[in-house]
Design a protein that fits this description.
234 residues; alpha+beta; 2 domains; 4-stranded mixed β-sheet; 4-stranded antiparallel β-sheet
Amino acid sequence: MTIHTEPDRFIGANVNARFLIEFAFNLQRFQLSGGPGWINSENFDIDAKQDDREAAALQTRPASESLTQMRLMMQSLLADRFHLKVTHDTKQVTIYTLSVGKSGLKISETPHAPASAVSGPPRQKGVYLAGPGHFVVKDSSISSFAAAISRQPEINTLVVDHTGLDAHYDFELQWTPADPIPTAATSNANPAAIDMAGPSLFTALEEQLGLKLAPSKGPMETVEIDSIEEPAAN
């Protein structure tokens, strides 16, 4: 599966309907329920472009507005081509809050050189799962990191960023995963190289990053698929 986005265009190769729905409504996997089995197994190629006038209007607006518009465009595409109908709900569930631990933050902000001194290819940014139990974070926010943590088997529920940190950071996190078997996204990992006596995710967060995860009760938006149809080819 590959994804490429531009300010006015979404291009997806070999993507399934579940991924498209999660992107369109800004959901984590555990927030989406229902639907037939093919939404996970059938893959599609998508090339969607915004209306030229809407795209031109977004050129002068913040990037966050462009992403929001992209999600709305995908919602329209799903309704039109997949005949998607959903029900939105908010439930009180067990969530986790991410905060700075008692020992204080142990990571440093991403250094940024003056624009005049920058040369070469663009710097890599984002939160990457380098292998089971191994996150690499480059020039990314703590809120993005919290979203990545929520997808781990040990958590599998909403993680809310309560750190109050609004800078970007570079760091790595390594722990002994609940499921050490590599997934498709981490197929290059060697299970034999994983330290099964290493710290848990909760312990590693405190020891290596100075961050703490604590369970709590809170609201979580959920979406249930009422109906969806396989689209005909263009």
